Amino acid sequence: MFLFLIFIINILLLLTSSSSSDLRPGFYSYTCPQAETIVKNVMKKALLREPRSLASVMRFQFHDCFVNGCDASMLLDDTPSMIGEKLALSNINSLRSYEVIDEVKEALEKACPGVVSCADIIIMASRDAVALTGGPEWEVRLGRLDSLTANQEDSNNIMPSPRANASTLINLFKKYNLSVKDLVALSGSHSIGKGRCFSIMFRLYNQSGSGKPDPAIDLGFRKELNKLCPLDVDQNVTGKLDSTPVVFDNQYFKDLVAGRGFLNSDQTLFTFPKTRGFVSLYSKDQTEFFKAFVEGMLKMGDLQSGRPGEVRRNCRVVNAHFLSQHKKMHNNDKSM
Ligand code: HEM
Ligand SMILES: *[C@@H]1O[C@H](CO)[C@@H](O)[C@H](O)[C@H]1NC(C)=O
Ligand SMILES: *[C@@H]1O[C@H](CO)[C@@H](O)[C@H](O)[C@H]1NC(C)=O
Ligand SMILES: *[C@@H]1O[C@H](CO)[C@@H](O)[C@H](O)[C@H]1NC(C)=O
Ligand SMILES: *[C@@H]1O[C@H](CO)[C@@H](O)[C@H](O)[C@H]1NC(C)=O
């Protein structure tokens, strides 16, 4: 009787898994009960290997969910017939640590082949990245499907520039039903990780074409940044996004209040009246920041395109290609 019940529940799970709108906690509790532990263990290993990789993986959630929903489209490699998102303006020479997701996927495929989507891996791994670096932990809703395609142009058109000001960012987030509060809290993700000189050269030397630096930068901090990123620097050189880049805390907001934000899109949150109050609040109250951050991550994680999808076997390729490649390899084996 008990087995029969499990059987029925599994059928129900299979039936519902094709509709992506009903995300829920415990989605894999029957089909892959170890899923969340497996993800966390790989993230723990990544933390020991290179602490920054946790920030890099956490950033995936933003770049995935804003472009046609959380569907792992940004993990697809380019193919002769599809220009993917990896080389899009905001991603090229910038997104990194794709291999951490590969490692998670490999471990999950070993334990429960074909069950856990890459889109859900991004959501779980992002949650773990925050928790493992000192931030809050939360329960994630799961059951996403992976896209069948990716779109570089959409990414180019959507993802915000580091030059953006707060009113541009408010408008962008509003399109996703994300509030001003969500915007400020989610920007607190820059409590961990690094950015390139490339992303701040304009604000150091030619803010808005003025030929001058951004006046919102604290003078002492500007001197530090000028040293890190002189005019003739290799613009791939990186700097910390806040003064404690491997700890997820509210230091980012304290830095903004002090005029020590790295990106223009960060500092503008303190300059603009509509966002300033939240920056001040989070700089003084880490608990409020953590609460708002979790809310924002859950809302952002619920963004869905409603398009058809699948559970990819390899996060970099759609199953149709993956399987045909395997068949080819198999046929070659036979002919040898
Ligand atoms: C509000 C608009 C945002 C803008 C304009 C923005 C822009 C950027 C830029 C320019 C960088 C540095 C890239 C480079 O120089 O190579 C960066 C890094 C990062 N972003 Fe954002 N971001 C935004 C929001 C978010 C959100 C919502 C998240 C996640 C919830 C996020 C997570 C990160 C992380 C963790 C890094 C560091 C990555 C690493 O060290 O590899 N960002 N962001
Ligand atoms: C913010 O940036 C946008 C786009 O660059 C610009 O049109 C707008 O005038 C700026 N807003 C303010 C208040 O500076
Ligand atoms: C935002 O909310 C409105 C009203 O609830 C809904 O119609 C719309 O689809 C939502 N947009 C997104 C991107 O979720
Ligand atoms: C600053 O930017 C403006 C407008 O983009 C440009 O015309 C000017 O040449 C730049 N100045 C310098 C010193 O790069
Ligand atoms: C950064 O490095 C990449 C790859 O090595 C190179 O193609 C690119 O031109 C460099 N970017 C900048 C801004 O120097």
From TrEMBL:
SUPFAM superfamilies: Heme-dependent peroxidases. It holds the Pfam family peroxidase. One of its GO terms (molecular function) is heme binding. The record marks 59 as: Transition state stabilizer. The keyword DNA repair does not apply. InterPro entries: Haem_peroxidase, Haem_peroxidase_sf, Peroxidase_pln, Peroxidases_heam-ligand_BS, Secretory_peroxidase. It is an enzyme of class 1 (oxidoreductase). Belongs to the peroxidase family. Ascorbate peroxidase subfamily. Belongs to the peroxidase family. Classical plant (class III) peroxidase subfamily. This is Peroxidase. The lineage of its organism: Eukaryota, Viridiplantae, Streptophyta, Embryophyta, Tracheophyta.
